[in-house]
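Incident review: delayed structure delivery

Summary: a single-chain prediction request sat in the queue longer than the usual turnaround. Root cause was a stuck worker, restarted by the on-call engineer. No data loss occurred. The affected request and its eventual output are reproduced below so the record is complete for anyone auditing the incident later.

Affected input:
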Amino acid sequence: MKKEHQHLRHDKPKQNHPRTDGGFALLLVVFFFLAFFTAVVIGFSGVLGSRAQNTRENMDSDQAFYTAQSGMEDALYRLDHSDIPDQDTEVLSLNGTVATTTVQSISATEVGLLSSALAGDAVRKVSADGTVGAGTSFGSGAQAGEGGIYIKGGATITGNVYSNGLVTGGGYRLSISGDVVSAGPEGSVSHVDAGGNVYAHSIDNSNISGDAFYSQNLTNVLVYGAKHPDSPDQPLATMPISDATIDGWEQEAESGSVYNGPCPYSPTSTTTIGNIKINCNVSLAGSAVLVLTGPVWVNGNISVGGGGEIKVDPSLGTASVPIIADDTSNPGSDGTINASGGAKIYGSGTEGSYVIFVSQNQSGEDGGSVNAINISGGALGGVVLYAPHGNISLSGGVSVHEITGYSIVMSGGADLVYEDGLKSITFPGAQGSWGISSWKEVE
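Output delivered after worker restart:
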């Protein structure tokens, strides 16, 4: 038999070559991760950029609005002092924002005003009709001079606040529903719960529902909106009623009649007065009711308590009437107004009508402690408080609609509720100075 030869196979040992498909998958994962991460970063950057742009636009818009308002007030001031003719253009620059105000003559006693301000790309415009002695505009619920605004407990402000000094709740929290401005390089806001934006050189120990605009310090502040460090300080504001306007009211009062005694002037029943200068202190209590038909100048002090009442004559409709305490011989200690014990202060009964308490006491501005206006003990009604050179104190359940003073102190449940009608209030027959009879924002 033929032998079969068996050939032995000598197979080479298998070699383990690395697989390349797993590495490729990993590269794909890395690639898609990087692409996703890049898309997220780009998207997030876009959101941040958009938000920064929006907050910047909001800041510019507010700056433009306040500057436009200041431009209009400056134009009226210059009209009062004959610094510009009644048909001209006035330019005002505040913190790099420029307001251009056009004054257009309508008649010898009436002008139209249009003030426009540009900040960044934001333009705000306000227009008004000005009339000699017609009225004025209160743009904030509370406005203070360099003396600032202090709160000692339980007080609330429904509206905006503008102060040339500090705004502080002290050891308490001041509740303000709107915007809060503490102007100038010394501007400071502390211990405030603000429903709107806050503008100040420094802010501390506060809660802010809107944005915080500050130049230097933000300490222990909860901001629900955006933070804007290195923001410009807001401009110092002029008082809405000039001394020239108050002088015009006093001249009109004195031109009507003058009361020289017996003193004090203390009616015991309903008495109608207007266009009168009273050279005595005035005291109202019990069933006494003073009905105002025109400006009253008290060359002394005014006291209302125990149910005493002051109101605007119903026939005046929407008009408001000033009652002025101005002791020209002793402005440091006299020329004060005190209302307490259930005093009642009312307008005419028509919306937009108010009693304007004006004190020309200068103690606050001179560094003294005398209160130009002191309202306490449940006094309330349609009243505006105005003391451009003095201190105003509110306490004990008081309710008012607007406060303007060199300094303001609120405590013990005092309540201020700003009304839109205060943006343009009118006065009957006043002469000699320019005021605003109507106001609106046009853009």
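Verification: The first strand starts at residue 88 and ends at 94.
Action items: add queue-age alerting; document worker restart procedure.
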